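Revision sheet: structure tokens.
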Amino acid sequence: MFKKSLYIFVILISFSAKANFILLPMDDTTQKNHLKAYGITYWALDKQYKASWLLNYRGGSFLLPDAPEIKKECQIRGVSFEVLSDAEATSILADISSPSQNMETVVLEKAPKIAVYSPPGKQPWDDAVTMVLTYAEIPFKVVYDEEVLSDQLLLYDWLHLHHEDFTGQYGKFYGAYRNAPWYIEQKKDAEALATKLGFAKVSQDKLAVAKKIRDFVIGGGFMFAMCSATDSFDIALAADGVDICEPMFDGDDSESNYQSKIDYNKTFAFKNFILDRKPDHYEFSDIDMTEKRRIPFEKDYFTLMEFSAKWDVIPSMLCQNHTQLVKGFMGQTTAFDNELIKSSVLTLGKNELNDEARYIHGQKGKGFFTFYGGHDPEDYQHRVGDEPTVLDLHPNSPGFRLILNNVLFPAARKKPQKT
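Predicted:
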């Protein structure tokens, strides 16, 4: 009992000498703008305020000091907040710390430096993460091959991988879009960049980039990938030194029997996958479940797994939401075949109907990675050239909340995972 009281006391004095606190509730009925609430929390950390993430308390709420500028910022951005007295905050923290409650308090220490891997001149439909970071008003820097290969990732804590193809096959768009002006231009730009950086092929450039990102994670970085960046990243690592590209991609034939030369030991998340050899087929391998799905639109939801907040703090942070059932959405890589996921990787969200993983997480070296299937959580079947999602229409999106959980994840004071 003494230790519990001391713990609560330390959390309270770590905020401020003031008696009041601000709670950003994250439940489904109180918070007007869940997405911008993450931005407020990031903003407060960036201003050197202390913050706590109350896992499983009212949807994963945030506790901040009662500062006039924080309240003003909440009002400007349309974020709901509640002012708590010292006694009310103490009572909430005591309840959270009770062994009978599946809740936990996580101290957030600093605003992580965010990088987004994305090519110059990308289209607005290219990246849901860029959209939600901009909407939440969380600052980020765009990096691409030159920055990555010159070791500039050392300047950042968190990296998002753009809707990218690390195998050098230009997203496998050849079949449908090889005559489209944008495809021709992107291929030309990629080849010019590879040449500038000293590579004979785009696939060699992308492999070098993937290996730098791998080293960033191993050294303690946080990497978040969506859609085709997930499986193409692992495929590129597994195919290190093996030519898997057909002539229309790199000018020469692929290696004979290249499937037998794939090294699954080099991947982050996936094992035993079979590569797709057809250059005009919009698919990299059998990791992706897009063409294996038989789920009607109205039943396409995935369930977030429930973890012990006190024992499994990291997966609990990543699954914070105001609902356990999240609307599904498609992409080039929509979901992951459960049979092809390594046993060391944790499934955070899955579609029970199709037995597919939608949201997975793992550790590599000193760092962490999260793979999230699908392209845009509020655009079910996004197609090339479609208008971008307007997040003002989806301020409480559970699917976009999962992205922002990952953004704040590096800010947390880490505790050892016990299971």
